[in-house]
Design a protein that fits this description.
Layout: H1 2-16, H2 35-39, H3 53-70, E1 75-78, H4 83-93, E2 98-101, H5 102-122, H6 138-150
Parallel strand pairs: 1-2
């Protein structure tokens, strides 16, 4: 689990030039709902059903506020959080702590940058393009495109 956080640190260092001493990869383990993992003697994660709901949000509040107080101005990146939880955390802390969700904001930012660059090269406007969405994020993408079109 920590491998993903360390991998992100490596990307920030190699591609972004960020000093690795300025990064702290952590994993927040709140359990698993996969019984085979709970029963596996080699599983190193928390061997209990995953914490959800208000108890989960209270725990995350303690973690995030603690990080923010110990490292003022810290950017906290959420990685591999479920969509419902990810959106709730981003919304809750948007005006209190600098947070970022790579799966939501990172993918969207890179995609938008690609679309804007393509329209600039073509000499067209984004609003005049036709888009085809395919895959797991279709419903969310269509919602955002409808909002873009409405504006």
């Amino acid at each position: 689990m920590l491998g993903c956080a360390v991998g992100k640190l490596n990307l920030y260092t190699a591609c972004g030039g960020i000093n690795p001493d300025r990064c702290l990869p952590i994993t927040v383990d709140v359990g698993t709902n996969t019984q085979t993992l709970i029963d596996d003697p080699y599983y190193t994660g928390l061997k209990q059903p995953r914490v959800r709901g208000e108890k989960y949000m209270q725990f995350m509040e303690e973690v995030l506020i603690g990080l923010h107080e110990h490292f003022p101005g810290v950017l906290i990146q959420f990685e591999d959080f479920g969509n419902t939880t990810a959106f709730e955390l981003l919304e809750k802390y948007r005006n209190r702590i600098c947070t970022f969700n790579d799966d939501i904001q990172g993918t969207a930012s890179v995609t938008l940058a690609g679309l804007l660059s393509a329209t600039r090269m073509k000499g067209t406007k984004l609003k005049d393009e036709l888009f085809l969405f395919s895959g797991a994020g279709v419903r969310l993408a269509c919602f955002h495109m409808h909002a873009l079109h409405a504006s």
